[in-house]
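Reading a protein record of the kind used here takes only a little practice. Each token is a code from a learned vocabulary of local backbone shapes. With that in mind, consider the following protein and its fold in token form:
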Amino acid sequence: MLRITELKLPLNHTQEELSKAIASFLSIEESQLDDFSIFKRGYDARKKKDIQLVYQLDVSLDNKLESNVLAQFSDSNAVKETPDTNYYFVGQADSSFPSKTQQRPIIIGFGPCGMLSALLLAQMGLKPIVIERGQDVRQRTKDTWGLWRKEKLNTESNVQFGEGGAGTFSDGKLYSQVKDKRFLSRKVLTEFVKAGAPEEIMYVSKPHIGTFKLVTMVEKMRAEIRELGGEIRFGEKVESLIRENTQDGEKGKVTGIKLASGETLYSSHIVLAIGHSARDTFSMLEKEGIYMEAKPFSIGYRIEHPQSVIDDARFGDNAGHPILGAADYKLVHHCKNGRSVYSFCMCPGGTVVAATSEENRVVTNGMSQYSRNERNANSAIVVGIDPEKDYPESVLAGIDLQRKLESLAYTLGGESYHAPAQLVGDFLKDTPSTELRSVVPSYKPGIKLGDLSKALPDFAVEAIREAIPAFERKIKGFSMSDAILTGVETRTSSPVCIRRDASYQSMNTLGLYPAGEGAGYAGGILSAAIDGIKVAEAVAKDLLELEKDA
């Protein structure tokens, strides 16, 4: 087959017009077109009155004709042979695994990274054991709603902790900026479709699922892991690692884990797939001597506008078109004070949610359902911070900063898990807000209006005040005075990086495989899942080689 790398057609084109456009692009007769399929479909909305759909297409022609077409496009990348996007396992264990000389791999954490890592290992016959501190997704949903509706926080089962990870209560975005020459994203998306995701995620340019669909998918993936011999333990927390020195004395070697329940599990292959909010685990790892470095993250607020304002600004008269759906945006501004402000985790037609995992702290996040049909659009507007400049004291100083800001937000919100909030117009004028206007905030359990400039460091407030009017020049209505800011957003990414080498193992601890967002190697569902696959492959290669030697 041949791949057309880019073909543009008007938004409201017909299927017949697509076939004709393919034939015209390839300089062939339409009757010579055997078949075609859509590999990717996006849109170009730079001209609101002339929005174009942008396709990548796989086309089937007669073999001789394919050769002629390839020769015609030999000097360009517009048409090429369709690459093989199938996934191939690195190996397969036999039915005797684990042997007397081998141990089952252990995965700590069951978010997107841990889940795909466990699924892949199970599919290769390596029967992983998963340790997840939170609860299964159904119980976790009840616990999360307990905070949103009753202001009752379960510190071990919430937006951050539990089956599916933080991505379960999000927009369910399934796109990433990571380089993916092996098409590992296709493996991830294929598994999601197999578990019940809409098939359109395989080809739309910005696929998403939403929380309600993710819940049932997570359950199906868990069931497959167990059917293949894997074991998943909920409500189990890792208290410490068991390590020993190797003969050269330069690196430690992991041999197992101790659980808070008192049980010890032994394994020489442990995947550390903790999320970015596993702060007590980071502290434990530091005490154990696992090599970590502080890394940048960002802090800011959530901003809410009527979704109709964003739709009109992005799509004009085409707002509401079913193919386009609810409009999103991606914004960045470089400020005079040397900081950068950008939009993060934009949730079209969604809600702002309470996302704390620690008592007496307030954290915001965004969430959407598959339909994206809620009244408001929301996004984090955050300021990048640098460990060397902003928290140089220690490797875990970023966590201290996060906690300080989250505790302050709890106080400003009235010490009841309500979040401090302010109208955008008042924020820009440096005037405390006292009443809402046309935009109704979606945050539950509720908000307390006031002065959000007290919730962040001065440099961040200054930068966001400069950025919002700049964003207005790109999205008309962005600085509307009635829009709502809610604080604070601190969990944009992990504040640490657990360094690993080319074999995906810890820099100073053999057998420990740091992975995913918490370890600093991903940022979102898809990139975390891809990293889980890569780490699972590394574990599998080592295990299967050891089994062969035995």
